[in-house]
Design brief:
single chain; about 130 residues; alpha/beta; binds 2-acetamido-2-deoxy-beta-D-glucopyranose; binds copper (II) ion
Length: about 130
């Protein structure tokens, strides 16, 4: 039994080490608060993270009350929901960041973007690039 136990521990350690060097990260938007209104300064959240090409954003929310829209910079700034680049409504959306640059997301429900449910994610070149652009 002791042998089996140590084999399991060894396996777990290998998984941890593997995670440590894995290229892409998941970022839960708003951390444990998720994607909602009135709890989180999403820009502060984004500014405290490093996003890399190939990382995944996870938006968790109640789909009755929120959604996720990817927007142009201008429509992000003005909270104009008329022409989203993409719309996500599952309540548990995983969006992979492909390529460096800015990704602008808002909630499309009336008033939510104006109230701060919006985030500007800046993606740097790759996981191995530790220097911000
Ligand atoms: C949103 O943008 C479109 C074109 O970019 C414009 O026609 C429309 O009036 C805008 N809506 C609002 C509410 O500003
Ligand atoms: Cu919302």
């Amino acid at each position: 039994m002791a042998l089996a136990k140590s084999a399991v521990i060894c396996l777990m350690m290998m998984m941890v080490i593997h995670c440590g060097v894995s290229m892409a990260a998941n970022h839960m938007v708003g951390d444990s608060a998720g994607w909602t209104i009135g709890h989180t300064n999403y820009q502060k959240w984004a500014d405290s993270k490093n996003f890399h090409d190939g990382d995944t954003l996870v938006f968790k929310y109640n789909s009755q009350n929120h959604n996720v829209m990817r927007m142009s910079h201008q429509d992000y700034s003005s909270c104009n929901t008329s022409f989203p680049i993409a719309v996500y409504t599952s309540g548990s959306d995983r969006i992979t960041l492909q390529g460096p640059g800015h990704y602008y997301f808002i909630c499309g429900f009336p008033g939510h973007c104006e109230f701060g449910q919006k985030v500007n994610v800046r993606v740097t070149r790759s996981s191995s690039d530790l220097h911000p652009l």
